[in-house]
Write a structure and sequence with these properties.
Blueprint lengths: L16 H56 L10 E2 L3 H9 L6 H10 L8 H5 L1 H19 L19 E6 L5 E5 L12 H11 L5 E3 L19 E3 H11 L2 H12 L2 H15 L21 H13 L1 H7 L3 E5 L5 E5 L4 H4 L3 E9 L3 E10 L2 E10 L4 H14 L1
Helix pairs in contact: 2-3, 2-5, 3-5, 6-7, 6-8, 6-10, 7-8, 8-9
C-alpha cells in the first residue's frame, strides 16, 4: 500500500536550522511592528472620535437652547411668525430709568416709555432710535431691578413713599387703610382708561363689530395702529385697551359707544358722579393732557373699585400678555404695562399711566384669601413707582 505523506514540523532533509529560526524571528518582528502601528493608529482614531462626540454635544446643546429661546417669545395657540409689540422692551427700560434733569435724557425716557401719553413731536421722532438702544440694555436693567433697595417704614409700620398722592383701600368694603394727599387734584393720565373700559363693559354687546373711523387714529404717540375701515369685536379692543393702553383704541371704543369723543366725555363725568368721584372731570377717554381734565387718588380708587367688581374687566387686567389679531390676519403679542403682575404673585391687575404733568401713576390690585386691596399711586418717579406700589400692596394685604 502506498504511504500517506504527512507534514511535520521537523526539519526536512537538507534544511538549514539557523535559516528557519531567522525567518521565524523576522515574522514575529514584522507582526510586532504591524501591531504597534495599528495600536498608534487606533489611539489617534479614538481621540478624534471623542473630539467629534464633544463637538456634536456642544452643537446639539446650542441648537436646543436656540429652539427653546425661539419658543419662549411665541404666544401659545398661534401658528406662524408672531410680531412682538414694538415698544415692550423700550417701555420696560424706560420705567426702570431714574428721573434726570437733563433734557436729552428726559426726552429719551419719554419717547421709549410704552405708556407715555406726551404729545411732543420730538419725542415721537426719537422713539425708534432710543427704543433700539434700550432693547440692548433691557436684560441688564431687569437684573438690576431684581434687587431693589429696601423699603423704609414709618413708626406705625406703613411703607414710606415718594409719590405725591397715595391711597390704599379695601376693594370689598371701601375702607380706607392709608392715604396721603388723597384729595389733591392731579392729572390722572392713562389710569382714567379704567373708567373708559368700565363704561364700555357695562354697555354690553361686547361681541358686536366695531369699524375703525379715520378720527379714531388721531391719538399719538402710543397707538396700536389700527387702520380706518378695519373691523374688530368690541371685546378684542377692550382687552387691548386694558393690557397695552393704546390711545387710538380708547378713541375708537369711545366714539363707538357715544357717537363722539365729546359725548363720551359727558358719559364719563356722569358715571364718575354716580360712583362718588365728585372731584374729577374728564375731557377725553385716554388721559392725554388737556385743560380741564383732572382727578384725585380718592376718586380713582372709587372708579377702580367699580372696575374691580366688574367680571369682564377683572378677567382682562390680570393678563400678563395678550395676542392681538389685526383685521388683515397679522398677530402681535402685547405685554401688559403693569409690571407688578410679573413680580408679585398676589397682584391681579389694574392700570398704569404716565404724562409729563402726571408723573408715573399706577392703580394696582391684589388679593389673598378673604381680602382684596386696591392701591392708587399718583405723581411718582420712574425709579420708585413699582417699589412704592408693591410695598403698599403687600402692607395692605397683611393689615
Amino acid at each position: 500500500m502506498p504511504r500517506k505523506v504527512t507534514r511535520s514540523n521537523s526539519l526536512s532533509v537538507g534544511e538549514n536550522p539557523s535559516r528557519r529560526d531567522t525567518n521565524i524571528v523576522r515574522g514575529k518582528a514584522c507582526a510586532d511592528k504591524s501591531f504597534a502601528g495599528n495600536f498608534a493608529s487606533m489611539r489617534w482614531r479614538k481621540r478624534i472620535f471623542v473630539l467629534c462626540a464633544l463637538l456634536s454635544v456642544c452643537a446639539l446643546t446650542a441648537w436646543s437652547q436656540d429652539a427653546a429661546d425661539s419658543q419662549a417669545v411665541r404666544p401659545s395657540g398661534v401658528a406662524g411668525p408672531v410680531r412682538k409689540a414694538k415698544a415692550v422692551k423700550a417701555k420696560q427700560s424706560a420705567h426702570e430709568d431714574t428721573e434726570s434733569s437733563a433734557p436729552k435724557a428726559k426726552k429719551s425716557k419719554e419717547s421709549a416709555d410704552d405708556d407715555t401719553e406726551s404729545s411732543a413731536p420730538k419725542a415721537k421722532a426719537s422713539k425708534s432710535t432710543h427704543a433700539r438702544s434700550r432693547r440692548a440694555h433691557a436684560k441688564a436693567k431687569e437684573t438690576e431691578e431684581s434687587a431693589p433697595a429696601p423699603t423704609e417704614y414709618t413708626p406705625e409700620g406703613i411703607p414710606k413713599t415718594t409719590a405725591a398722592s397715595v391711597i390704599v383701600v379695601d376693594a370689598n368694603t371701601g375702607k380706607i387703610l392709608y392715604e396721603k394727599n388723597a384729595d389733591q387734584i392731579r392729572p390722572p393720565a392713562s389710569t382714567q382708561k379704567l373708567l373708559t373700559a368700565l363704561i364700555v363693559a357695562e354697555s354690553g354687546f361686547l361681541d358686536r363689530p366695531v369699524t375703525v373711523q379715520p378720527i379714531d387714529t388721531m391719538a399719538d404717540p402710543v397707538k396700536l395702529n389700527i387702520k380706518a375701515g378695519d373691523t374688530y369685536q368690541r371685546i378684542d379692543l377692550l382687552r387691548a385697551l386694558l393690557v397695552k393702553s393704546p390711545n387710538d383704541v380708547a378713541r375708537c371704543l369711545a366714539r363707538d359707544n357715544a357717537g363722539s369723543i365729546e359725548a363720551f366725555a359727558e358719559v364719563m363725568n356722569r358715571r364718575a358722579q354716580q360712583l362718588g368721584a365728585v372731584h374729577s372731570h374728564f375731557v377725553n377717554p385716554n388721559g392725554l393732557p388737556v385743560p380741564g381734565q383732572y382727578s384725585s387718588a380718592r376718586d380713582l380708587a372709587l372708579i377702580a373699585r367699580a372696575a374691580y367688581a366688574n367680571p369682564t374687566i377683572r378677567s382682562i387686567v390680570c393678563l400678563p400678555q395678550l395676542v392681538f389679531r389685526y383685521a388683515n390676519g397679522r398677530t402681535r403679542e402685547l405685554e401688559n404695562t403693569n409690571k407688578l403682575l410679573r413680580r408679585l404673585p398676589y397682584c391681579n391687575g389694574m392700570k398704569t399711566g404716565y404724562t409729563d404733568a402726571a408723573g408715573k401713576c399706577l392703580i394696582a390690585s391684589g388679593t389673598r384669601p378673604g381680602k382684596d386691596v386696591i392701591v392708587v399711586v399718583l405723581g411718582d418717579s420712574s425709579s420708585r413707582v413699582w417699589r412704592d406700589a408693591s410695598a403698599l400692596l403687600s402692607w395692605g394685604l397683611v393689615m
